[in-house]
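Hello,

Our lab assistant flagged a job as stuck in the queue for most of the afternoon. It eventually completed. Since we weren't sure the result was trustworthy after the delay, we are filing this so someone can double-check. Below is the sequence as submitted and the structure that was eventually returned. Let us know if re-running is recommended.
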Amino acid sequence: MGKHATKTSIRKVLISAVMLVTALSLSLSISISTYLDVKEQKKLIVNKLQMIAEIIAFNAQITLIFDDRKTEEKRLKSFNKVELVKNIHIYAIDDVTNKPVFFTSYNASKTPPVPLKVNEIEALKEPKVSTDYVELIIPVEYEGKVEGYVYVRGGLERLSQYINQKILVDIALTLIVLILVLFVARAIQKRIANPIDSLSIMLQDVSKNHNYSARATKSDIEEVNMLANNLNIMLARTQNQLARHQADKLEIKQLNQNLEEKVNQRTIALREANQELLNTLERMHQYQNQIVENEKMASLGQMVAGVAHEVNTPIGLGVTGSTLLRDKLADINAAFEQKTLTSKQLERFIHDGIENLDLIYRNLNRAAELISSFKKVAVSQDVEVSSEVNINKLFNAIISSMRAEIDIKNVTWQLSCSEQLNVRTKAGLLQQVFEQLLSNSLIHGFLDLKDNQIHIHVEQHHQTLEIIYQDNGVGVSNAVKKRIFDPFVTTKRGEGGSGLGMHLVYNLITQALGGTITLSDDNKKGTKFIITLPLKGVI
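-- returned structure --
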């Protein structure tokens, strides 16, 4: 059971709130006033000290030029009547080293001397204000030439005394104001709390005796009067509600008598609706099967069109090359029969023939590769037997076999996998998957040679193997993401891409290895595949 909230009263809250707001307001006002006053006093002291330093610098021009220390010492002793000044140093410029050296000084009564400040001249050109002192240095110039420097150190004792006196006055003023506010708050509290006490007594009577005909009296405080009016309205409504409640009891009793009959009627209607729903569900299953068959036919048509398109291009180029070669051969034959064949014609024919034969060979070889890739996609890969495989060694072997392609694209790779992770799976199929993913990154992902990276994370969870393959290439466009595992989907159409690579990877993982592969959308740059494979055993 939870703790009860701390009880309080309007009297305490009102007095506490008024006193707190007053105290905070006075504290804030006095703090700001004191801060600004002290800041202004410090500014006046600094200005006064600067004016004294300027007077000393003006008087010291001649004494520095004529090296008259005695005159300057007598002049400085006149500052013993200036309470602000504690220490004065005058530095002259040495004619040999051109550096400031001590000339003379002044120390006020009961004030210890301070170390020389010749190394702090630049720092003290702006006045330095500490807790107890103000320090500054100004140059002594004569006809535009610096003859020396004046260091003046002033005390802040009077400022501290002023602050202490002001704080005492502010505290006394705050206490007087708080006492006055306390008396005013008590008077206001009585005026507000008494009508509320009357309302509380009236509500206790209503709660104890159920006297809902009682009414609150009016008050001269507007808010309390509004509360009393609202309480009267509530009591009147409660009285009316009780009367209606008695009438409702009779109506509920009559309704309960007819409830069973209505429930039976609704049950019959619900059974009829359920039967109609079952019939509709059966028809939906029929429609769903028909849609699946239509999707299969559409996918087959798309695949056949892709095969025709991919194979037709190299075969067409081969036919074109063979036709050109036949025409040139006919020209050479006619020239031979007419005995007009020249060595230049024969040389050109041989050169063109080699080019045409190369064209025919390349395109027929391209068609053969497409058909071979298509056969890999279509033919089942279940013939391989599972064996024990070290994932780390398998991946390193693949990297070694593809080292030339990786070095061309200046790729750095990283494998996060335990060296002792041995699993039972189909090594050849897993190797094909890795090789195809690496080829896709090299061909489609990395368009330049700068900062190309591939990271593969392999981790075993119970009886599943999770592989995360990620590169920082150009990534996959939104248009291709939805169809990336479909056959003949490629961004390198006409540049050597057949569009069968990721379809082959999908078939190998989902059908031959019994796993899953997904293209992640959470990476901001590059491509990320998440592969999950079931394991028959972990060694």
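-- support follow-up --
The delay was a queue issue, not a problem with the job. The result is valid. Confidence is low (pLDDT under 50) at residues 377-381. The CA atoms of residues 18 and 494 lie 84 Å apart.
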